Amino acid sequence: MLLDGKISFILLVASALLMSSCGGSSTGGGTTPPPPPSTANEWAWMSGSSTAGAAGVYGALGVASASNVPGARNNAVSWTDSSGNLWLFGGWGGSLGTTGLLNDLWKFSPTTKEWTWVSGSNTPGAIGFYGTQGVASASNVPGAREGAASWIDTSGNLWLFGGGANDLWKFSPTTKEWIWVSGSDTPGAIGFYGTQGVASASNVPGARFLSVSWIDSSGNLWLFGGEGYGPTGVNGDLSDLWEFNPTAKTWTWVSGSSTANSKGVYGTLGVASASNVPGARFESVSWIDSHGNFWLFGGDGYDSTGADGFLNDLWEFDPTTKEWTWISGSSTVNASGIYGTQGVPAITNVPGNRFGAINWIDSSGNFWLFGGAGEYSNGYLAGLNDLWEFNPTTKVWTWMSGNSMVNASGIYGTQGVPAITNVPGNRSFAISWIDTNGNLWLFGGLGVDSTDTIGVLNDLWRYQP
Fold first, then answer.
1. 240 exposed, middle or buried (CB, 10 Å; 0-12, 13-18, 19+)?
2. Fewest 10 Å CB contacts: which of 62, 90, 164, 216?
3. Are 252 and 203 in contact (CB under 8 A)?
4. What is the residue-wise DSSP string for 317-353?
């Protein structure tokens, strides 16, 4: 379904436990009512179906409605705009019997709880309309795809790269128009690397899936790894780091190898070095901290020995010094997690190997990690619903919620109502947002529904840390 034989399973199953929330207490005095009970650390099922394979309800293009909802899908991409609206594009999914690659663009308002179909087709397999490179048009639209990379700039424009191609797109939520900015209008294009550290109009990353991305304080777009093509026609896992300058419209190959399936160079734990570099990988997660440093965790790829498997290594990249630092986790594949006590930070804690997880960054700069799939000690591949928090100042992980074991369906409760018993079923290849109030949002993916059915989902969840 996705890329190669490495993702041959259809789903991941995991146990579900949640942290207790704090209830209100009486204030006394006889006339002052008690405060409402806290919903912190509780999940709420907000939209979509509690069963797998649900079809989308598109309504009228550009018109919000309480009945609208995107169909079930995985490996879509997401953005959050300055107004707190959540945006969703593409992926692989659709209703049973009509599944395929998608290019539909959606907006969700956390205030009104309504979805709007904004752009793209309401059927799978739509082709792209590129128009003239650099020129916006109402008829332009990226073709259907999964596993693309995304950014949002300070002007509120949505950026999209790849997903089987190496085309770079920009979407204006104001004009509702797409612009084809860079790359090829045909799939499978090879990369042109040029000289490392030197920008050039001829440079461009090769076509790829399942990369990770960052945007820096200057508005430059950054892209790392994925599965795809370097400078040859050979497909493989990548470790190349790229920077795109939207003003000059040039790419720069910054770090990593131009050849596929390269092993990692870890150096010394906690020590930055110009020779350090994460191994080639795809389906990692990434975020950017308050100091402008980039972070990378896990994925499916290559370790320090050149072995291919699932990773739990955590890396930090300083875009000023152009150096990587190995921060946490193992330098070898398929390492088990150390959970410790739920809710208690400990220097020995670390999430286990995984790929296809999702993540958030909260207003305090802490990193949150949920689910994915990984290999366990008995050798089988299993799904997860564990929720972790990482403090980049103390460099310590805390297991916050979910189970350290595997295999459970979702508990949905009543739509729109937070509850301590609610929890999404284990899943991979979902997407995530964080809103202006600091709530974590989760949509879809490949997982287990409320009936223990394995499939592609369209459920939307909110978690209040």
1. buried
2. 62
3. yes
4. EETTTTEEEEEES-SSTTPPPB--STT--BTT-BPPS
Q: Which residues contact 129 (CB under 8 A, 6 or more apart)?
A: 139, 140, 141
Instruction: Decide: 317 and 307 in contact? Cβ < 8 Å.
Output: no
452 contact partners, CB below 8 Å, separation of at least 6 = 409
Q: Are 372 and 431 in contact (CB under 8 A)?
A: no
CA 374/CA 378 separation, integer angstroms: 12
d(CA 217, CA 153): 10
3-state secondary structure of 406: coil
Structure tokens at 184: 């090829």
Q: Which domains does the chain have, with CATH numbers?
A: 42-464 (2.120.10.80)
Pair of tokens at residue 181: 């900015």
The separation between the first and the last C-alpha atoms of the chain, rounded to the nearest angstrom, is 34
Rounded alpha-carbon distances, angstroms, from residue 303 to 183, 265, 331, 381, 391: 30, 8, 6, 18, 24
Tell which residue, 448, 382, 456, 365, has the closest CA to residue 95.
456
The DSSP bridge partners found for residue 74 are: 92
Distance CA 72, CA 88 (A): 12
Per-residue pLDDT tens, the chain, 465 aa: give them. 333 443 333 333 333 322 222 233 222 333 434 444 467 889 999 999 999 999 999 999 999 999 999 999 999 999 999 999 999 999 999 765 688 999 999 999 999 999 999 999 999 999 999 999 999 999 999 999 999 999 999 999 999 999 999 999 999 999 999 999 999 999 999 999 999 999 999 999 999 999 999 999 999 999 999 999 999 989 999 999 999 999 999 999 999 999 999 999 999 999 999 999 999 999 999 999 999 999 999 999 999 999 999 999 999 999 999 999 999 999 999 999 999 999 999 999 999 999 999 999 998 999 999 999 988 656 678 888 889 999 999 999 999 988 776 666 789 999 999 998 898 988 999 999 999 999 999 999 999 899 988 899 999 999 988
Cα-Cα-Cα-Cα dihedral sign, residues 53, 54, 57, 61: negative
Q: Residue 53 corresponds to which amino acid?
A: G
**Cα–Cα distance measured from residue 256 to residue 258, given in angstroms and rounded to the nearest whole number:** 7
